[in-house]
User: What shape does this take?
Amino acid sequence: MASSLEPCSPWIRVFHPSPQARVRLVCFPHAGGSASWFHPMSRALTPDVEVLAVQYPGRQERRLEPSFADIAEAAERIVGELSPWRDGPLALFGHSMGATIAYEVALRLEAAGRGPVMLFASGRRAPSRVRNEHIHELPDSGLLAELKEMSGTDMSLLDDPDLRALVLPTLRSDYRAAETYRHREGDRVDCPVLALTGDRDPRADVEDVAAWREHTKGDFDMRVFSGGHFYLTGSDDVVDLLRDCLLTVSV
Assistant: This one.
């Protein structure tokens, strides 16, 4: 594969360049999340797997850019931004909203002639399972309550009104994109899909996650871990599973 030391797209972060890795894993964050959330995973998987972490607009160094409002549009853009890294096999890992974006990216990569070798869908119900929750329409207090329930953010950080003013608009935009997404009936990826979830996830119960099997023409497997929506934080078991899968998948 080509060297990953070349300048990166603002959409793609490479924390631990490993140009000789067998496969690259493109990681898509959850709503409100950023590329840096995958730094520990990148460190743990290198040098066997090179991690490319997607940085959505509207956060961290891209905080002055408008957030995306549509999952499909974001997927189209990301496929283009991945062009420099498509000289070798890619696998995709998405958590929560990121799983839906990863799925849409997989469909587009396959349509372009070279799809991913595997799709990991984490903490997200299958694309065809719709819940009309309208969380993005809640007042700020409602969004903060959602963050608390999902336990993905240190709530003490949001005691700062300036930080809340920075974080909440991006979070609301992400939820809007996720909640207004609708799967196109009949779409399925060709690649294998491994679905992962926590057994106490309030937004992705086991039955809805298992429905990912309906969205692939390839092999399907599912793993349920102990924990809530962010069951994978600090989990060596998850990293070991990803490594084992990626080092044995056909490329």
